Amino acid sequence: MDKAQTRLIRAARVVDPANQRDETADILIVDGVIRDIGQNLDAPADCAILDADGLIAAPGLVDMHVHLREPGYEYKETIAGGCRAAAAGGVTAVAAMPNTKPVNDDPSVTGYILDKADQAGLAAVFPIGAITKGLGGKEITEMGLLSEAGCVAFSDDGLPVMDSGVMRRALDYSRTFGSLVIQHAEDNGLVGCGCMNEGPVATRLGLPGIPNASEDILVERDIRLVELTGGRYHVAHISSAQAVAAVADAQQRGLPVTCEAAPHHFSLTDEAVADYQSDAKMAPPLRCLADRDALREGLARGVISVIATDHAPHDDDSKRVPFSQAANGVVGLETLLPVSLELVRDGVMSLSAMLAAVTVNPARLLRINRGTLNIGAPGDVALFDLNEKWTVDRATLRGAGRNTCFHGRDVQGRVKYTVFGGRVVYVDQNED
Amino acid sequence: MNADNNAWSRKHLLGMDGLNREEIGAILDTASAIREVNHRPIKKVPILKGKTVINLFYENSTRTRTSFELAGKRMSADVVNISASSSSVSKGETLLDTMANLQAMNPDVVVLRHPNSGAPHFLARHLDAGIINAGDGQHEHPTQCLLDLLTMQDHLGKMGRDNFEGMTVAICGDVLHSRVARSNAFALRTLGAKVRFSGPPTLMPSRAEEVFDVTVHHRMEEAVEGADVVMMLRLQQERMAAAYLPSVREYFRYWGLTRQRLELTRPHAVVMHPGPINRGVEIATDVADNPNRSVILEQVTNGLAVRMAVLYHLCTGAARSASNIAGE
Predict the structure, then answer these.
(1) CA-to-CA distance for B86 and B98, rounded, in angstroms?
(2) Which candidate among A64, A87, A210, B10 keeps its CA 20 to 30 Å from the CA of A46?
(3) Residues 6+ apart with CB under 8 A from B2
């Protein structure tokens, strides 16, 4: 990989939602930090130059919902492998969920993750600590010590915090540190043995279904707890129309409630399960068209302020089994940008608003210094061709997990270079 | 049914969903013709000599497995039975690995029963052999459906009909978990019959009316009134533990097939059940044993003929040269 941390990106269309910038300009990065943005900047001596004519330069994307699998599940993915996938998707900052083995409920695990990420050097990794010890749903973790160690938020993702009393304490306690509490909102009792969305497709396929109410009930309960505690609450991978409406209502009442949507939820429906396609199996499940449309409307209105992938790599053996036995989850880092750009082409969001949802908005929620092209910010830039058409092919994915639900999908918009701290960490093979 | 036997060109039989009238007719016609073999002193014909059929059963089943085994043997196929409890599955081998090993023995047909919906579709994507779904999870059970259709067809004359068009079939009980109900609903609607589902709301699939083009009746009397066929489903006792129902006695009170409820049907109506029956749970003993109404044992007899017909179609002729994998 490229070693130079001083670089001039020349003649890109610079789109930086945080600064409402959209103009053709040069970006000068010195010692890994953005030094200047403007027309016809002079290149310092020995500065590497990247000709970006015709490309869009956006802040390096921030994905606040990623599973890196290490420690414990290295056979599915490693931190280095996950960061490689991030780089290939133009993502320079990922927030890593704590459902590793051991769980990230201890500062030593947080430190391990950060060390491994530093060694990989391909993206900034921001660990998310567990809400409860061992993801057991009973006792809250040492949120203060975990925050000091580098955790930027707390979540038991993969599992909901089912006990209302525990969730109340988590929201209450986290206020001390201003931490965001991220809920995987699914009521276990209603999920039962369900393995896809409840509805006509599940009925036809004879698969046990999961109703929208499983998500709605937990989101509405948690909003009551936010009212009680004042904690900062965020719904991970929101999927149902009613849950979006509940969040919108809470926001109107001024509560600190936010949510994110994943590209698969706003671009696909449960029809994608069709012939028992295990790569379309995820939690929460792909919902019906009305839900998909509600997510798009939520994104358009800003109720859903963040797009996050829930990147969940699995080994082939976890997916090459009958549908109901297959593991939940899909990879998403490498398809985040082109699938999200469909929102722009479909007139749901402006380019700037869409990019805000994958840059500055998640960065502000996590309170991390990423997602902008501010002078003095880390020199993280995603350079992409807005118009290049390509077809998603699982065989060409860079991460270890290739369980994509977008295999074969024709998309538009391709990352050409990813610059991380001034260094080029990804080059599209067609640009080599 | 006077369908052309060549109407069948599928490599697999994964379900009744999507089969057309001609395809269903082809199987039923073959089954009608072939069942005479089962009444000969020497119950064996050489139709499938040299063909290999593997019965792979991940769930316990006596009648279906025996029926497939006999069907293959009576047509001179080499039949191998494997049950999950006695195979490498109990040592942790995955379904795909098990099948890959069996595939290496180059079988012509694999008959799969599996607790997971879609398991036969999964195999059909990965393996060369023809796959017969012998019941997958709560999805489909196409050969049970075909034997039900053959049994109904045998009684069409008694009903004053010459086909299924306009016939009313009430399917009652635990529809949610029933692969028999699903397969029958798909096929009966294809053949022009009217289908009613009946059972408690906790045991009814989501949006059943829309998916199966049926009517749903939570009061059983509504469902059986004027019906030509009443098809009872087995209540799986484990549903009690999962709190789908409060008790067996309450279930029988509201959804059991009693003589009184049977009297609401057409005078010629037949009573069917895929077996094994739970007497006093979903069906009263005097109804189950009523020789004028119950065709439950005829169903078992027809099961053998239908499975012979399905094996025949999958092992021979157009089916084996079909390039598509329709039937998925």
Answers:
(1) 12
(2) A87
(3) B25, B29
Helix ranges (H only) for chain B are 21-34, 63-74, 95-103, 119-126, 142-154, 179-190, 208-212, 220-224, 238-241, 248-255, 259-262, 285-288, 296-315, 318-321
* Tokens linked to A177: 């540190």
Distances (CA, A) of B99 to A312, A360, B57, B293: 28, 50, 12, 42
ipTM for the whole complex? 0.86
Residue B88 has pLDDT above 90, yes or no: no
Look at residue A139 and tell me whether its pLDDT is greater than 80. Answer: yes
Three-class SS of residue A21?
A: strand
**What whole-number distance in Å separates Cα of residue B151 and Cα of residue B129?**
29
Helix (H) or strand (E) holding A387: strand A381-391
Residue A268, C-beta contacts closer than 8 angstroms, at least 6 positions apart: A280, A286, A292, A405
Instruction: Identify the pLDDT of residue B240.
Output: 67
Tally DSSP H helices, then E strands, for chain A. Answer: 14, 18
For chain A, how big is the Rg over CA atoms in Å? 20
Interface test with B, best of A271, A276, A289, A316 (most B CBs within 10 A): A276
The confidence band for A3, taking pLDDT boundaries of 50, 70 and 90, is: confident
- Residues contacting residue B102 through CB under 8 Å, at least 6 positions apart: B54, B56, B82, B110, B129
- Report the gap between the CA of B186 and the closest CA in chain A (Å): 10
Amino acid at A154: F
Distance CA B186, CA A204 (A): 10
CA distance B143 to B72: 14
Q: Is A187 a catalytic residue?
A: no
Beta bridge partner(s), residue B215: B196
For residue B127, the model assigns a pLDDT of 86
Task: Determine the straight-line distance between the first and last CA of chain A, rounded to whole angstroms.
Answer: 13
**Encoded tokens for B167:** 């016939």
Q: Is B98 touching A (CB cutoff 8 A)?
A: no
State the CB neighbour count (10 A cutoff) for residue A249: 14
- For residues B270, B271, B272, B276, the Cα torsion angle rounded to the nearest 10 degrees is -150
Distance CA A146, CA A138 (A): 18
Average pLDDT of span A360-388: 98
Question: Token pair for residue B308?
Answer: 């012979």
Which candidate from B116, B179, B206 shows the least CB-CB separation from A322?
A: B116
Identify all chain A residues contacting B18, using CB atoms and an 8 Å cutoff: none
Q: A29 - beta bridge partners?
A: A7, A34
Write down the pLDDT at residue B99: 82
Q: How far apart are CA B79 and CA A406, in angstroms?
A: 41
Q: How many helices (H) and strands (E) does chain B have?
A: 14, 9
Which helix (H) or strand (E) element contains residue A423? Answer: strand A423-427
Distance from CA of A269 to the nearest CA of B (A): 17
Beta bridge partners of B229: B169, B270
Among A195-199, B12-16, B36-40, which stretch is predicted with the lowest mean pLDDT?
B36-40
Which of the following is catalytic: A310, A315, A316, A432? A310
